[in-house]
User: Fold this.
Amino acid sequence: MSEILKDNGVVLKKRNYRETSNLVSIFSETHGKINLIAKGVRTPRSKLSAVLQPINFIEFVYYKKITRDLQFLSSADFVNDFSRIKSDFKKIQTAFALLELTNIFVHEDESNPSLFRKLIESLISINDFSTQPQIFLVFYIIHLMESSGYPIVHKICPSCNKNILLHEIQKYFSKHFGVICNECGKSINESNKLNVHQMELISKCNMGEISELEKINIDDLFLKETLGILEVYISQHVNEFRGFKSLIV
Ligand SMILES: [Zn+2]
Assistant:
């Protein structure tokens, strides 16, 4: 017997399956990652093909049978097609980097409602604001790493256990520990010095509301460097991640 289930989700990946079908991976709100077969969607009459494009936020109905690895999609419709993302190359690249990361970190039958909310918030912000889109990727990475048990920003230096004052002295980043205190930064060889703008970006992404990020204006080079060190940090902790394929940082 199969159950009929309804959920919301973001389309992470879509690929061809057999003659006329697609295999679609979705990060769903209540069931984690779901891999679905969408039968017959590559025929010219199918309207579902446009709905099932990566980045789209959709609502969908599917048949679930626990004895099967792949489930069958019944119907799907747009919640948000993020049309402004799709008309801007930098926004597309950034949104795909978010999907790439999400695909590595989320698993089948493991719901993660708070990460789901962060993903939706980040995509809405990339779509709606004229702010540099990669700022919202920094925001998403910081929350993703925290929810995976590898927080980047701590109140206490993870290397020496002393309190650290985010806005004052410490401006160092280690690929093992994330943000560390000034003293540890000077003594740990592989640490990167963060300038005041990079530190402000990291602490606002960590503590602030996503709407406040709209006002951040950071030099493109500093933003690129920040993403570069975060990329190294992620690959240091998560084997499956070998750098962004959709983004050259
Ligand atoms: Zn320290």
The beta strands are 3-17, 21-28, 32-38, 57-64, 71-80, 172-174, 178-180, 192-193. The domain at 84-237 is CATH 1.20.1440.120 (de novo design (two linked rop proteins)). The helical segments are 48-51, 83-86, 89-105, 113-128, 134-147, 182-187, 196-207, 220-237.
